[in-house]
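Suppose a colleague, Dr. K., hands you the sequence of a protein chain of 287 amino acids and asks what its three-dimensional shape might be. Before reaching for any lab equipment, you can write down a predicted structure in token form. Begin with the sequence itself:
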Amino acid sequence: MPGHKSIQVFFYHSGLSARVSFDPHATMNADAFARNFVKPEFTAGEASQWLMIATDGELYGHHQIFRDKFLSYLLDGSISAQHIETVYPGLQLTQQKVFPVIKVRDNTSWSCHHGVLRWSSVCACTPNSDWKKPLREALERISDEVDKLFVASCNGILENVWEARDRYIEVFSGDQKFADWVRKMSDAQMTDEKIKQLDQLFQAELDCQRMFTSCGWFFDDLDRIEPRNAVLYGAHAVWLTRQFAAFDLSAEVSPLLEKSKSWRINLSALDIFNEVMLRFEQGQKPS
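The predicted structure, expressed as tokens, is then:
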């Protein structure tokens, strides 16, 4: 990684993870699951063995009733009955000091069999997703222009604009007020108007991250709350920068947004964009 940095990566057992998450018959009895599925994965010997099962919290009690009780008993009784110790990645990091070095294959994901195509175009995981490519191109255009304005406006004020952008979480979390925070970040003299401008730009940068949230691109149709929100955040970034910049990105991205259409109903991303822009003009904030 850049700067000689590294991360610890834990590989989960694909079969057991899928079984505990999506096989309702296998998760009816925790004792049987531990005995029939988990125990056979460990081989006899003195060497320490570590097996990771990964699953999603919403699968317990939400997608399958009482599966949360299965999981609780599995961890608190069934696993130990098979003489297996329950650990978690954080604990394993404290116990294991040496790790093999690997390279992570770029542009791959666990939820798409076509690399990362699911988040940008049409693939067999989500048929009828022609709307994704023009929408991504439009939002990337918005992001690029907001970045340029952000860097130009912060020039001479913030020494490292991207570090400051990342630390904006201190404001977004409610820990600090923006005016106090930005004055701590810079020794430059700033008028109240300049601070307001920077505040809007940092909000626009946040919107540019929000509009690429994974779930906005995960599903097959534009007419869902997730992609609608992606368009909303893009529109809000445009609206914020339009307050003080000499240009309006709306006209530039509109042709691309118009090409992004729902396959179920007569709706385009431009329709969503124009609707939320009108709301912003009327004083409503994004939610």
